[in-house]
Amino acid sequence: MNPFEQKLAEGQLTLRRGRLQTLQINVGRKCNQACRHCHVDAAPWRTEMIDAPTARRIGEWIQKFVPPIVDLTGGAPELSEHFSYLVQTARSAGAHVIDRNNLTILEAAGFEWLADFLAEHDVEVVASLPCYLPENVTKQRGAGVYEKSIRALRRLNCVGYGTEHRLNLVYNPVGPFLPPRQAELEAEYKEALQRDHGIIFHQLYTITNQPIARFAQDLRARGQWDDYLTLLANSFNPETVEGLMCRTTLSVDYLGRLYDCDFNQMLGLELNPGSSLCLWDVTPDFLEERPIQTGVHCLACTAGSGSSCTGAVQG
């Protein structure tokens, strides 16, 4: 029994899948950035990317079962040559589409079309901006990223994001600590970004850093691994368990294999241990009431106000 399961057992809590709401597709590990906190270990040199047959099979599944939300992530999902196909297929089927956007991709050569394309298809943009202060963004993401991100946000505002098209920002702590309260930090972001740059957006999502991949390596190198896990365990909040995203989200990797969440995907904790299942092997009904694969990293999702791909679990 891992430490997370021990916490569930102490509270007599159970964790099983409910009705599918979000199909989250990780199209690959390639990214134009290499951030310190990245749980995907994404970078410009990664080559693992979805191929055409897999993208088509996923598109066919979406058309057949029409999940309410199709969430495209990576890496930088826009670097996939099949990104546009997945967006158009999901929108034509009637699904709401989310693009998990690192902002700097909008500034990359060859992606001048991207903002208009996203707006044309009314794609929700969930954009990562670790802080409204340039020094903190530089510390986590590198020199020049803050300035590129601000220009990208202005571009998104110009095509209707923050008004008629949904634009949400994502905050990750710079180090091994929990995010502040989401509502309070959102107010600070909105005031600072509008005052300093004239930028508007809808919501801020606060996400706790997962102790896996690059962030885990950083914790161990700095001798902070044990302290961070202790912080997560001591901050366990049983009231977050009911709202965990793994209950309603299905994660698909670039090969089509299934996981309960993107974090499990990065750790190789498959939906069906010992025998891989691909998206085209299952139906939404098959998923309901299945047990969820867990590990010590799940403590990050239940610490404090909780954490998910849509921010804090509790306000």
Task: Outline the structure in words.
This protein has 315 residues and is an alpha/beta fold. It has a single domain (19-210, 245-293), classed as Aldolase class I (TIM Barrel). 34% of the residues lie in helices and 11% in strands. It contains 11 helices and 8 strands. An 8-stranded mixed sheet has the order 6-5-4-3-2-1-7-8. The protein is globular and about 50 Å long.
What topology emerges from the helices and strands here?
Blueprint: H1 3-10, E1 22-26, H2 52-65, E2 69-73, H3 83-93, E3 96-101, H4 114-120, E4 124-128, H5 134-141, H6 145-158, E5 167-171, H7 182-197, E6 203-206, H8 213-221, H9 225-234, E7 249-252, E8 258-259, H10 262-267, H11 284-287
Parallel strand pairs: 1-2, 1-7, 2-3, 3-4, 4-5, 5-6
Antiparallel strand pairs: 7-8
Helix pairs in contact: 2-3
Summarize the structure.
34% of the residues lie in helices and 11% in strands.
List keywords for this structure.
TIM Barrel; 11% strand; 8-stranded mixed beta sheet; 315 residues; alpha/beta
Spatial order of strands in the largest sheet:
6-5-4-3-2-1-7-8
- The count of β-strands is 8
Domains (count): 1
The proportion of residues forming helix, as a percent range, comes to 25-40%
Helix/strand-derived category reads alpha/beta
**Separation of the first and last Cα atoms:** 30 Å
Tell me the CATH superfamily: Aldolase class I
- How many individual helices? 11
The CATH architecture classification is: Alpha-Beta Barrel
Quaternary: single chain
Could you give a short account of the major beta sheet? 8 strands, mixed
**What gross morphology would you assign?**
globular
Strand content: 5-15%
CATH topology: TIM Barrel
What string gives the helices and strands in order? HEHEHEHEHHEHEHHEEHH
Please state the CA-atom Rg, rounded to the nearest Å. 19 Å
Average pLDDT level: 92
Please report the first level of CATH classification, the CATH class.
Alpha Beta
Poorly predicted ranges:
none
